[in-house]
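Input structure tokens:
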């Protein structure tokens, strides 16, 4: 199928009108792709226009933060009642839960053998972790994330396939919407400073990733070893920290049905003070991750 890589004038006006109305970048890109625009072209065009509009607004107005609408909680994806989640092959125990934001700490998500096996698959393939630059959309190595990491696609691996299936059942969200499992390793001193796992739609560099299944909606961080010192997952806005325990996990959600993002889900990996820390993260998207 031929796709368009040029923006006719009527679409140019349509793009400005929709951004002015406050439509989400990913919805605009999706509508363009459905009208047969090339996906990369659409993501780039929208991202460039968002950046241009931001520059024009900055030039026209004295520095002023746009007021954020209060986050409205919708139906939780994590809709497990009681204290046990019975997945197809394992019972996972809920040891802590909160409603706002939806957050849970889970015990026994992975066996110790499964944790060791995941570490074994990742160990020789680690690379310095990078983050997506919000303006350029390029992957960049920065001081605020000093771990090493690797994605582990499950394709053709029966072991990872089972883990993926269990995780999708726990997160109560389609497996196809998940990014591949991502293993992180922190040495002493390594950290992941507080950040949001979602992509700020106002930042042009995030357009291309938002076109790959939409916004992230939830995160599951599973601890793969016992950390000798610190390395907690911290939630500064909630005054909460989760202490790593081999095989246990922390789950949280940050996106409602109206497209609002919960900024209180700010979180980070505190510096490891002794030993090392291994985790595997699953990020879920709104739609199928491509
Ligand atoms: O390793 C962690 O504790 C951590 C903290 C914050 C991991 C992530 N974010 C992540 O993988 O997004
Ligand atoms: Zn994170």
């Amino acid at each position: 199928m031929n796709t368009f890589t040029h923006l006719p004038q009527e679409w140019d006006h349509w793009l400005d009108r929709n951004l002015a109305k406050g439509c989400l970048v990913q919805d605009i890109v999706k509508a363009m792709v459905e009208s047969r625009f090339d996906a990369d072209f659409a993501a780039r065009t929208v991202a460039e226009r968002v950046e241009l509009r931001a520059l024009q607004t900055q030039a026209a107005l004295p520095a002023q933060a746009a007021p954020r609408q209060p986050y409205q909680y919708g139906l939780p994806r994590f809709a497990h009642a009681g204290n046990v989640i019975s997945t197809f092959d394992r019972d996972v125990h809920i040891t802590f839960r909160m409603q706002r934001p939806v957050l849970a700490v889970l015990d026994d998500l992975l066996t110790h053998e499964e944790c060791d096996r995941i570490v074994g698959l990742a160990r020789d393939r680690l690379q310095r972790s990078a983050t997506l630059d919000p303006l350029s959309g390029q992957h960049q190595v920065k001081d605020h994330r000093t771990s090493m990491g690797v994605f582990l696609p499950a394709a053709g691996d029966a072991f990872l396939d089972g883990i993926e299936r269990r995780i999708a059942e726990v997160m109560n969200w389609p497996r196809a919407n998940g990014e591949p499992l991502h293993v992180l390793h922190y040495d002493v001193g390594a950290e992941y400073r507080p950040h949001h796992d979602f992509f700020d739609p106002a930042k042009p560099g995030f357009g291309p990733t938002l076109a790959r299944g939409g916004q992230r909606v939830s995160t599951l961080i599973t601890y793969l070893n016992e950390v000798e010192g610190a390395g907690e997952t911290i939630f500064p806005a909630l005054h909460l920290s989760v202490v790593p325990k081999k095989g246990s996990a922390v789950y949280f959600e940050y996106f409602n049905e109206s497209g609002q993002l919960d900024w209180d889900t700010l979180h980070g990996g505190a510096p490891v003070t002794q030993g090392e820390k291994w985790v595997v993260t699953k990020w879920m998207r709104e739609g199928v991750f491509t």
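The chain has a mean pLDDT of 91. Residues 184, 192, 197, 219, 221, 233, 267-269, 279, 281 surround pyridine-2,4-dicarboxylic acid (ligand 1) (CB under 6 Å).
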